[in-house]
Amino acid sequence: MNPIDALLTFAGAPHRLPDDVTAVAQHFLADTLAVGAAGHDAPGAAAILQVARTMGQGNEARLIGTAERLPAGAAAFVNGYRIHCLEWDAVHEPAVVHAMSVVVAALGAAIDRRGGVSPEEALAALAVGVEVAAGLGDAATSPLKFFRPATAGVMGAALAVARIDGVPLLPALGLAYSSIAGTMQAHVEGSMALPYQVANAARAAVMASDLAGAGFSAPADVLDGPFGYFRLIDDGSSAALVADLGRRWRIAELSVKPFPSGRASHAALGVLADFAGQPVAAVELACPPLIRRLVGRPMRADMTPAWARLCLPFLAGLMLRDGRIDPRCFVADQFADPALLAFAERVTLVDDGNPDPNALFPQAIGLTFADGRQQRIAIPATLGSPDAPLGSAQTAAKLALARALASPACDARIFVDPLAYFTDPT
What we know:
four-stranded mixed β-sheet; two-stranded antiparallel ribbon; 6 strands
């Protein structure tokens, strides 16, 4: 069977998820909805909502965290932004894909428009979408050029939505591929266009399914064609993508993000949390090249919140001072704080020579204390990953902060019964 046929056969199959995968899928769904609720008033969210309100009339789908409803594509657009805008959403680390974000935003809108589905149907579609999005990243062999959470995310999300909508999968996939957008330039510049790219991908996934249902034609050879995904977007292998679809269930390989900041900062922050309030005078992180590329940027008094979330020198000082990373600290007076600026000059990231362009770990952190004492700590896995899962207290702390950031109008089921919220729009 050729890779496209294998992918579509998998995406359309009547999967029954193993019990352990079902439990993990529910856990990550709860996490994703919570961070989406927390992002309802993040920087840029008001503009996204303002524009989404012009995208037609109707109340097909809910907005995560507030009481408003919009047409399905517009709701997916808003929800994609809310999920990713705090940099708090789950990630598949080997793939370097926030594999839940586009899929949950688009799939939730499709489920709402349909009037609800069974939990089993919703979780199967969710797992399929994540499998494809993370699988595309897993199969990539090149460094990030395009913003993979959006480029891979729209492909997985479109198949998940088409599955729920009952429309032909091949044109939905082809139209999703034709809608791909998003580069790493927004990341480099610390622009709020980064979560916009997730929002745009979520809306595009809904539109791809809608057009497929309307009989609109689309390119078919979107993996290996002369301008297919593995020729244009990422180097890689379609054979690797489809080799073990549904055998591993990549949704069970995702990592929770304990802190609302770039995932590449979390290995260091997880260690520094244990030293909060102690007289740490300097930090040196030995890490793969991708870590330096993603979060090795300097702290500036005039930086944006999006830049700050990807700035380890700022985040390290914040963690040592407060013992946590709170989005409410991503404001101008904190960016100009003399003590944080001075400490940021003493945070360095050193390339450890890892040859894998997509590697996020292992890492090692060196601490120098005010009395001259030094300590080095190896970090074989990042906090929140399957190899270093959050403890119950850490999970509770994340959800408590998300709840504190959520609107009073937030549907309480997001925090007490997220699967019911996701599958029942009434």
